[in-house]
Specification:
Elements: E1 2-5, E2 12-15, H1 19-24, H2 26-39, E3 41-44, H3 51-59, E4 79-82, H4 96-103, E5 118-127, E6 135-139, H5 140-146, H6 149-156, E7 159-162, H7 164-169, H8 178-183, E8 187-190, E9 192-195, E10 200-203, E11 209-212, H9 217-231, E12 237-240, E13 247-251, E14 255-259, E15 269-276, H10 283-286
Parallel strand pairs: 2-3
Antiparallel strand pairs: 1-2, 3-13, 4-15, 5-13, 5-15, 6-12, 6-14, 7-8, 7-11, 9-10
């Protein structure tokens, strides 16, 4: 297995081992799991992408998350990110599916708004619109390590509130519907995540986060915005330009990502599977202490 560096201090292209190998061979899984823990983002090129292969690969890393209510693929393992409607037509630019894509253009980490957050996401390119529709990534682990020690100390036990509605409301007031608001109430997480595999911390923030325990609302939002700005400075961002057959996996404990716009009159279809975090992944360390 060969690992080719991709981003500024994080991310590798995996060569010589494919997603099918990981799904079927314990040694291949161990090697790729070690690369995932170390590099946070993995790229596999020219993969035989199919739903069952993607799920088999993803399941090797842990329990699979069910796609949330009111999404394409709700209740199943596959989150279908596409601008194609039920009749095979390209939907108009004000359609909910396009608004969802625009909301995904906010820097975020997947599922921080859920009662069980995500360990990792696996995204495969099925149909691409051409040159646009990149996905950008940045490391919150490296961002944590850049913070001054006094700020690290302040954030070590700080707790932020995340909600799905907070990020969606930034795009359109009706994008998070009543069902989503009901089944996805706000949740609270520590603002850093300790990875037990290497004892390294990562800042744990997202566009879903909006409040910090013990801070007034304005100050909390200002601090979250400053942390987001520092984390996503352009020199620390890897821009992934998709090719058909690409499969990208990233560590939601230690990464932020966002989708970029494309010509919405052209089809773009991607499929994401998401692996839920467990205590073995450090989940206990990010849970607020119950007094």
């Amino acid at each position: 297995m060969e690992l080719v560096p991709l981003g500024p201090g994080f991310g590798v292209e995996v060569r010589g081992v494919g997603i099918l190998d990981v799904a079927s061979d314990g040694e291949a899984y161990k090697a790729v799991r070690a690369a995932f823990e170390e590099h946070s983002l993995l790229l596999f090129r020219d993969q035989p992408v199919a739903d069952d292969i993607q799920v088999a690969y993803s399941r090797a890393f842990g329990p699979l998350e069910l796609t949330k209510a009111a999404s394409l693929g709700a209740g199943g393992f596959y989150s279908r990110l596409t601008n194609i409607g039920a009749q095979g037509e390209i939907v108009p630019p004000d359609h909910r599916q396009v608004l969802v894509a625009q909301a995904n253009a906010l820097w975020h980490t997947d599922s921080s708004f859920k009662k069980t957050p995500a360990l990792a996401s696996v995204l495969s390119a099925r149909v691409l619109p051409g040159a646009d529709g990149d996905t950008e990534f940045t490391s919150t682990r490296l961002a944590w390590e850049r913070l001054p020690s006094d700020l690290q100390g302040k954030l070590k036990d700080a707790i932020a509130t995340h909600s799905y509605a907070n990020s969606r409301d930034q795009i359109h007031p009706d994008l998070a519907n009543a069902e989503e608001r009901k089944v996805l109430p706000p949740v609270r997480w520590r603002m850093n995540w300790l990875n037990p595999a290497n004892n390294r911390r990562a800042l744990y923030i997202a566009s879903h986060a909006y409040a910090i325990d013990g801070m007034d609302d304005r100050d909390a939002r200002q601090l979250l915005a400053e942390l987001m700005d520092e984390t996503t400075r352009r020199e620390f961002v890897y821009v992934h330009k998709w090719r058909t057959g690409d499969v990208v996996m990233w560590d939601n404990r230690a990464m932020l990502h966002r989708g970029r716009p494309w010509d919405y009159s052209k089809e773009r279809s991607m499929v994401r599977t998401t692996i839920s975090a467990t205590d073995a992944d450090g989940l206990a360390t990010v849970r607020p202490t119950v007094h």
